[in-house]
């Protein structure tokens, strides 16, 4: 296992990355020179503060996974807060990326063995001389 893969396995990497990308997408839509930019809600400091904090929380999830529960709850709240403040949450894309990333980070369990794929479980059962378990059967 290479170093990057080992590093990502010990932290909620997909969740942190999605939250970071969601915040970055919202910031891009706030600064884009589009004539379609919506200006709904508070367009002052909060429009830039919430996506910036989303990027910061995404980085904190990647580099400090011990506090993932707190960071993921804050990430969901920040993502939902971008709906009225930042072009409807970056035209919904950034909002959805932030919410999904925060939920992935919240559900990440650090010290869990990776699940074996069904093919590996069946192969191990055949090697042990017992019939493979079916869905819903007790182990």
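^ structure tokens above, recovered residues below v
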């Amino acid at each position: 296992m290479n170093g990057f893969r080992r590093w990502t396995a010990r932290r909620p990497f997909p969740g942190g990355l999605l939250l970071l990308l969601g915040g970055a997408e919202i910031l891009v839509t706030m600064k884009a020179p589009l004539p379609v930019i919506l200006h709904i809600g508070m367009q002052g400091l909060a429009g830039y503060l919430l996506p910036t904090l989303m990027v910061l929380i995404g980085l904190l999830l990647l580099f400090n996974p011990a506090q993932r529960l707190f960071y993921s709850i804050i990430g969901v709240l920040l993502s939902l807060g971008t709906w009225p403040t930042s072009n409807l949450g970056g035209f919904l894309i950034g909002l959805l990326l932030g919410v999904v990333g925060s939920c992935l980070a919240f559900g990440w369990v650090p010290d869990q063995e990776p699940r074996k794929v069904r093919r590996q479980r069946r192969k191990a059962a055949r090697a042990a001389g017992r019939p493979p378990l079916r869905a819903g059967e007790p182990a």
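Residues 68 and 120 are 31 Å apart (CA to CA).
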